[in-house]
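Figure 2 data, in text form.
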Amino acid sequence: MEKLKHVIQKAISEKMFSGIGIEVNHKGNNVLSLYDGKTFFEESGEEEGPGIVTPSHLFDLSSLTKALCTSLVTSILVNKGTLSFDTKICDIFDEYALSYNKDLKDITVAHLLNHSSGLDSWYEIYNVVKNRSDAYMFVRSRPRSYITGSQHLYSDPGYIMLGEVSEIVLEHKLDYIFDHFVTAPLELHDLCYSPTVNSTVKNDKKFVSSGFSSVRNKKLIGEVNDENAYVFKGIAGHAGLFGTATDVCKLGQHLLDIMEDKANYPIIEKQTLSTLFSKPTDGSDWAYGWHYPSKENSTAGKLISKNSVGMTGFTGTSIWIDFDNSLVITILANRTVAPDSAKFGGDKDRFSALRPLLHDIIIGEIK
């Protein structure tokens, strides 16, 4: 993996990110564990400099929250019979909650999972409201941007709403739900939400910085990067999870083991998980919370099999599970510390060009 190390060191020197953690499992065995860089870029005048990134450091996982928490928790509720993929949100929310937005009443759990609900892709919620209850109400008040089910539009508000569905049904916040159903049973102690208040996991030395927030006027270390998730006190359905590359990879491996009939997880069955990962029949790349490789310019590169699912995060994180090759690839970086971090997507985004290259190098070495 000398080529991989060289490419990563070059990227760090060019300030694409300050630190990175990579874990790769092949056929159930860990074949790569690589960490490089520092927790943030050193600046003059700081009292304490950055630390060296190690396997124990937690990254802001950003939108990996959608796949690893929200869609997984939803599938567990389906497995328990509490929800179904066809459950309409009007069956979950009381009449008052939807009384001012009747357009939402026919949205189903499946619509929210595969980004076909009709809800916006994104909105500056943090500029409108400042607390969780008002933020949830604001999301429910937004008009649809297209007819439900007519297309797929990646939607943060859709996953915020899906997270609220779980909280209503189970009468607990998502951090408790995720720990109770996922991380505690699987002993994933370094995969968790990092609430912005009353946190029990805060230790700045454990976290890799996700950059500077101009809204909060502070460097973010152990505090969620996503401004809308911050309004939810760091606990939301679209973002908020933190984790080590090791624990993210372990969770991916466990899901792969279930699909390969190599492990049992009493709370979720293979049949339900298969539905979660089911390949779309309408031409979309979106499964239920997970993404299949795009036909062109996939974030997972050119060598990953078409029978793979993955998810990426704005902060520079990703996980891909390749079912054909029994492969789990986790790459966690903090691209949002880069000077040009506002550029995400398109020809000018350096990290989006780098990510598929990293996957191609890794898979090329394994094959």
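Caption note: The mean pLDDT is 93.
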